[in-house]
Protein 1
Amino acid sequence: MRAAFPGALVVAAAALAACQTRPAGPALTVVGEGTRPRWTDALPAASPFFDGARVRLRAARGEVLGVHVVRAGRGQAAVGLDLEAAGVTVTAFAVDHHTVALPSTAMYGGSRGPGRYPDRLRPSSQPVAAARAAFFDVAVAGGAAAGVHGGWLTVGDQRWPVELVVEDVDLPALDAPARAWAYYDAREISRAHQVERGAATFAVERAYAALFRAHGVIASPELTPQSWAERRELVAGLPFVPVLLPVEPGPLAAEGRAWLELTAGSGQVPFAIPIDEPRAIVDQLRVRARAGWVRAAGGGPGRFLYAVTQRPSWLLGPDVDLHISPFAAGVVPGAWTYNGTPPWAGAMVLDAADPGARTWGWIGFRHDVPVWYVWDALYWRDRYNRGRDAAPFTDLVGDPRTFDDGEDHGNLDGVLAYPGDGGPLPSLRLKAVRRGLQDRALLEALAACAGRPAAQAIAREVVPRALAHARRGERPTWSADEAVWEAGRQRALDALVACRAAGGEASSATP
C-alpha cells in the first residue's frame, strides 16, 4: 500500500508539528522502556512509577530497570538519578529524537504518525543535559541487599525522592538460556567503522555482540565451518547455531556433515534459513529440494535443522524441521517467530505503537516460543532494495527510513543499535526488548517455583491472544498503557516472592 500523501507534504506536516506547542499534560513524568512520547506529545497523565511527589521502583536481584525521564518544559535542564545502595549501579544516557516524516506502512502494523521519536541512546555523565528526555539503567547486582533503598531524581533545581525496593529473589542471567537471536551482516560493521575485515573488524564486532548479550539477545551473523573457531563465542548460551549453507547439493551436503561434527556433544544444534520468505511456488520447491539434501546428509531434529520463515504447507514437504513464522508459533510445536507486526506481536519499527518489542517476551512465554528471531539488528543501509554497493549510509536521526521498496517503508526497520565513535550505541527499542525478556525470565522463574499455570494466568491477562491465535484485521488484544504491563510484572514478582518465602524452590529444568 502506498502512502496516502506525497513525501513533500508529509515532511511539511512533520515540520509544522515540531513547531507547535505541546498539548496540556504533566510537566514531568517517569516511564519505562516501552513508553516513547514524541517530542510534541502531551506526557501521560499517570505513571506507574511517579505520582508527582515520589519515584517508586522495584526489582529482583539480577534485574535491570529502564528509567525514562521525560519533561515538557522549554530549553535544557540537568537531569540526574542517584541511588544510595551497594550493588546498585546507575548508568545515564542522553536521548536522541529521530524525525519521522514518512510513517511506516501497514506491513509493519501501521504508525503513530509523523513526529520526533526518542530512540538512540548516548552514554552520558551525570547530570544529563536534556531538552526533552534522559534515560537511566538501574542495574541490581546479584549481591545487592534486599530491602528499601533511597535516592534522588533531580531536574534542574528541583528534586524528588526515589524509593527502590530490592526483593529477596534472584533472576537468572538473560542468556541462560537465551530466548532471542539477532542476525547482522559483519560487513556492515566493517564499513560503518571503516576498519579492514579480519581481526580489527572482529574486535568491533565483539563489542556489538556484548551490547546485545547484555540486553538478552544473542547477536551473530550466519556462521561457516571456517568461521566457527573464531565466532563460536558469539553464540555461546544459544541452544542453536545459525549457519550459512551453500546452494549446490554436493557442497551443501559436505558442510551439513561438517556442522554435525563441529557441534557434536556441544548441546547446540545448527540450523540454516537458506531461502527467506519463500512465497513463490518455485522458491517453495527449492526449499523442498534443499531440505531433502540436508536430511540425506544426516540432518533432522536434534542434529541439523533446515528452517524456513513460513508456516507449514504440503508444498514445502516433510523435511523442513523448523518453521519460523507468527502463523506457526503457538500452534506448531517448537516453532519460532520473528520481528513483529500487530495484532500478532508488537512491531520493532521506530513509530510503532507502544509498548512495541516489550511484547515479545510476554508473547514468547505465553505461547512457549523457544527463540525470537530478529532480522536485522544492524540494517543501517537499505542494501536489500538499493544494492550492497549502491546503498548509502544516511543520518538515521534526520531520516530514519531504513527500508523503502517504493511501496512499503519502515523507520529503523532492522536497527536496534547504532554505530558510534566510541563503539556501539543502544536504542530505546533494544531496552524494550530487554524489558520483555526480563519479564519472561520472571514468569519462567514463577513457573519453576509455583507451576506453569500460575504464571500463565498472569501472562494471559496481559496478552490474551497473539501470534497464530490472533486474527487478521483485529486490534491488538494487549494494552498500549504501560501501567497494565507493569501491573502484570508486579503480580508476577509478588507471586514469586510469596512462593520463595513459602519454601518453593526454583527448578533446574526450563519450565
Note: The longest helix spans residues 428-450.
Protein 2
Amino acid sequence: MKSKKSLKGTILIIIFSVLAVGVIFASLLMSSKENYSESYFYSMDTCIEIIGNNDIKSDIKDIFYETEKIFDCHDPDSEVSKLNKSQSADCPDKLSNAIKRITELNKKYGNGADITIGALTTLWNITGDEPTVPDNADIKAALDTVGYENIKIDGNTISLKNGASLDFGCAAKGAALDYAKETLEENCAGKTIVSAGSSSILLYGDDSFTTSILSPESDDIIGKIHTGAGFISTSGGYHRYTEIDGKEYIHILDTKTGMPSETDLTSVTVFCQSGIDSDFLSTLIFTGGTENIDKFLKDKDIKIVAVDKNKNIYVSDGFDFELTDNTFNVGDKK
C-alpha cells in the first residue's frame, strides 16, 4: 500500500513573478521598479503562498488560521466538528453562510460534490496514514448519511439529519480566499496573488493575469488562460491518491456510489468571481465527467477548462485559452 501527496509550490522572479502551485500557476506581470515579495506559511494541510507589494500578509495568515478553526472537520474543537457532534447548533456567520451558499450550488448544479460526505471521507481515509478499502456494507451505511437534503437551515441555526457529517474539503480553501479578498479590499491593497495549495488561487487587483494549466500527466504546461481578477480552482485526482493492492484510489469520492470517483475527466479548472464557488464547482464538474460537461461550458456564471483521459480539452465559449501543447486537442471530441 502506498499513498502520495503533491502539494508543493515554487516562485520564480525574473522580469515578472510566477506563482507555481502544483496543478496550476499564475503569473502577475509587474514592472522591474515595483517591490514585490513572497510569503509562505502552512495552513489547511497545505502550503499557502502570497505574492504582492502590500503589508497585510500577516492578516491573510490570520484569516487562514481562523478559517481552519471553523471548517476543519478533523479538529475536534472546530465549529464544523461541534456541529457534527451535536447535529444542531447556532453557527457563526461564516459557517452558516458557507453552508447556505453550497446548498444553493447543490440545488442548481446537483450533488456531484456534497459537504455531507463526512462519513465517507472518514471511512476511506484516503489522505490519512492508513487508508483501506471499506466493506460494501459500511459504504452503504455511510452513503445513507450523504445528501445536501440532510441539512436544515433556519437563519444561523443549522441542523443535520440522518446522521449527516460535514466535510468542507471541497470548499474551505475557496472560502478562505473569499475572506482574503475582503481584507485586501478593506486595506486598498495592490496587486496580489494568494495560492491555497495545489487547488485554488485568488488573483487580486486591477490587472490582467495569465494562468498556466499543467498537464495531468506531468508538470508540463498544456495551455494558458488570460483573465482579469478573480478566483481559479482546479480539481483532479492525480496529485492526491492512494494505491492499495495495485489499484489507485483518488481522494475525490463519488456521492452516488460511495467509491473514489472514476470520472473520465483528469482535471477541471474553474474561473469565476467567488472563491467558494470555484473550489466547490471544480470538484462537482470533475465527478460528473464529460457526460455532463456541456451545461457547464454554456454556464454564464463560470468559465472552465476541462481535460479528459483522451487528452481532449473542453473550453467555455469566450474563455481566452491558449493551447501550448499540441498533443492535446481543443474541442468536443467525445
Note: DSSP finds eight helices and 21 strands in the chain.
Protein 3
Amino acid sequence: MRTEKKHGFATRAIHDGQQPDELTGAVNVPIYLTSTYQQEAIGKNKGHEYARLTNPTRDALEESLCSLEGGTSAHCFGSGMAAITAMLTMMKTGDHVVCSDNVYGGTQRVFDKVLANYGLTFTYVDTSCAENVAAAIRPETKLVHIETPTNPMMAITDIRAVADICHAQGVELSVDNTFLSPYLQQPIALGADIVMHSTTKFLNGHSDGLGGVLVSTTEEQAERFRFVQKCTGGILSPFESYLLLRGVKTLAVRMKQHDANGRAVAEFLAGHKSVEKVFYPGLKDHPQHELAKKQQSGFGSMISIELGSLERANAFAQRLRLGFLAESLGGVETLICHPATMTHAAVGAEGRAKLGITDGLMRISVGIEDVDDIIADLDQALGG
C-alpha cells in the first residue's frame, strides 16, 4: 500500500489514493454502498469479497492516510477509541504497557476499565521526561503509548528519544498524533512504530464524522490490524470514509490557518488579565518550546487556559457567541471544552488533581474563522 513520497504534502493529500474513477472518470472516489460483491466464479473475485473485509472507498482512504504519515499501511476504524482498542489486540495476558499519564480520558478508561480485565497491565508516567519511560519499562513491556502534545495540558514528549529507549529494549512505540495531524508532525520519521489518530478531529476537519486510524510500519502489524478489522468488524463505513477523504484534501490549507490562528490567539490570551495561565507549546515560556520547534513543523491550534475556578470557567463558556462549548476538537469552527467535566471526567477528581486539570481549566480548539473575530469573542467572553 505504501506510496512513494514523490510529491509535496498538499499534493499527496489531494491525489494519493484518490485517483479518478476508472469507470466514469469521476474525480472524487465514489461511495461504494455495498455489503457484498458478485464473484466471477467459486474462489475468483475482483479483489473484494465482503464489505467488512474491504471496501473501495475505505481502501482509497487508507492509501491516502498511509502516504501522509509515511507508513507501510493504514487501517481505519469506526472511531478513535475503536482504533486504539484494536491496537491493543497485539497484546496478550501478562503484557505491560507504558502510557503518557496525561492522555485523553477515554484512553485511560478503556485501558483500566476494559483491557485490564483481560490481564494487561498499565503504568502511567510523565513521558515529557524520557527517563521516566526508561524507568517504567519492564521485561514484560510490549508497548509504550504517548500523546504529544498531551490532552489537555499540552506537554511535549521527545519522540526520537523515547523511540530510542523503546527500541533498545525491544518495545514498540505508538504515538497519538491527533492534535497536530501529519501536516505538523511526522512521528514515524522520528522513530515511532505505530501512529494513531482520532480521524474525527483535524483529519476530517468538519465535525461531521467519527473515525480512527492506525498507521503501521511492519507487515506483522498490518496483518494483525487487518485481521482485527475482519474479526471484530469495527470498521469505518463507506460514507464516513468519503467524508474523511473530502476532509483530507484540504488538510494542508486548513492546518496552515489553524496554526496561524492558534499562535495569534495564544499570544492574545497570554496577555489577558482574566487568564491565569496559558498552556501552548508555541509560547516561549512553555517548558518544551524548543523541543516543539525541533520535532514539529508548527504549533497547531490546541490551547488550554486556566481561569481559576469553575464559576469563572462557566461564566466564560456561557458568554461565548462565536465559539461553541462542545466536546471534540479539530473542526473548522472554534470549539471550547471543559476537560474536568467532559474529556477527563472518567479520570476522577484525584487523577485530575495529579495532572493539573482543575475545574477552572478550559481547552480551546481554535478554528479557521477570521482570527480577529475569534479574539474578539474570547475577549468579551473573558470579560475583557
Note: The first strand starts at residue 73 and ends at 77.
